[in-house]
Amino acid sequence: MTTILAGPDCTTMAEVRAGVDQVDRELVTLLARRFAYMDAAARIKPVRGAVRDEDRKAQVIANAQAAAEAAGLPGDAIAALWEQLVETSIAYELAAFDRR
Hints:
Elements: H1 13-44, H2 54-70, H3 75-99
Helix pairs in contact: 1-3, 2-3
Pfam families: CM_2
Protein name: chorismate mutase
GO molecular function: carbon-oxygen lyase activity; chorismate mutase activity
């Protein structure tokens, strides 16, 4: 098993790629957890129209942007990623709602 080094400790591209691949696996695991909440929301919300909540969407994106900026990451780019994540989550939740 390859030891995954922290980014600053990497000295080769193989080490960088191994780290990136590990982080990607962890992100997919976290996304699965997030989408399980979308399943729960689809089960809990009483009507399909309640799935899309633009105020909540704006809050989630703003929270991600602020957290990114606090971590020294580009806030606008993270906000764009979260826009896509939230829209994908809404589509997933709508499909889950329709299946119930």
